[in-house]
Each structure stands twice: as structure tokens, then as C-alpha cells.
Specification:
Strand content: under 5%
Oligomer: single chain
Shape: globular
Order of helices and strands: HHHHHEE
Radius of gyration: 17 Å
Distance between the termini: 43 Å
Number of helices: 5
Helix content: 55-70%
Length: 121
């Protein structure tokens, strides 16, 4: 993948700064893994990969702007995947999607700090 990929990668990480902390951490980790995996992708795969990430960046940017303008009561990030879109995914991608969903929906432990600085969960 060429230099355009680096600019897109940076743009996405910048956009993630506006997300809630848990989503940002999850998104950053996923973006880094995916861009790393696709470094040596062939031209056709790289083009599709970049197009999908450009669409993602545009969507997240729009949702962040809507959140800033309070256009929705509650901001929901991302989109619902249609059955048609899911059918285009390879088995590996479906597995990754399942892992993301599991990570995004698992309860987060709350950590509190007591006066003597011991961590409690």
C-alpha cells in the first residue's frame, strides 16, 4: 500500500480521539492490526481495503460532528451491516467481526483508587 494509506491511517486515529475512551481503545487497536496485516496486500485488495476504510472514516467523522451539534439524543457510532454486506465477508472477517462485537459488548471493570493508592476492581 502506498503513502495514501498512511494519511488515512493517521486520519482515522485522529478521528478516534473524539470517541468515548473504550471505543477509542478498541478502534485504535483494530485499525493498527488491520493496517499492519494489509501492508503487503496486492493492488486490488489494497484498493478495496482503502476504500472501505475511507468510507469508515467519513461515517465516523459525520457521526462525531452530529454528536458535537447534538443532532441526536444519543450518538450511536458505526452502522448495521446488511445481510448482503455480511455475505461478502470471508470467514476470517466474520471471525474478526465476532471478536470485535464480543470486545465491544463485554462489561468493563470499574477501577477505583482508595486513599492509600491501592487499586480495587
Amino acid at each position: 500500500m502506498a503513502g495514501g494509506a498512511l494519511g488515512l491511517y493517521r486520519r482515522i486515529l485522529l478521528l478516534h480521539r473524539a470517541l468515548p475512551p473504550a471505543l477509542r481503545a478498541l478502534g485504535d487497536r483494530y485499525v493498527k492490526e488491520e493496517f499492519r496485516k494489509h501492508k503487503a496486500a496486492g493492488p486490488a485488495e489494497a484498493q478495496r481495503f482503502l476504500r472501505e476504510w475511507e468510507n469508515y472514516a467519513a461515517l465516523i467523522e459525520q457521526q462525531i460532528n452530529e454528536d458535537k451539534q447534538k443532532l441526536r439524543e444519543k450518538t450511536v457510532y458505526g452502522i448495521r451491516l446488511t445481510e448482503e454486506k455480511l455475505n461478502d465477508f470471508r470467514d476470517e472477517q466474520i471471525g474478526q467481526l465476532k471478536e470485535l462485537m464480543d470486545e465491544a459488548t463485554k462489561p468493563h471493570k470499574k477501577i477505583s483508587v482508595s486513599k492509600n493508592s491501592e487499586h480495587k476492581t
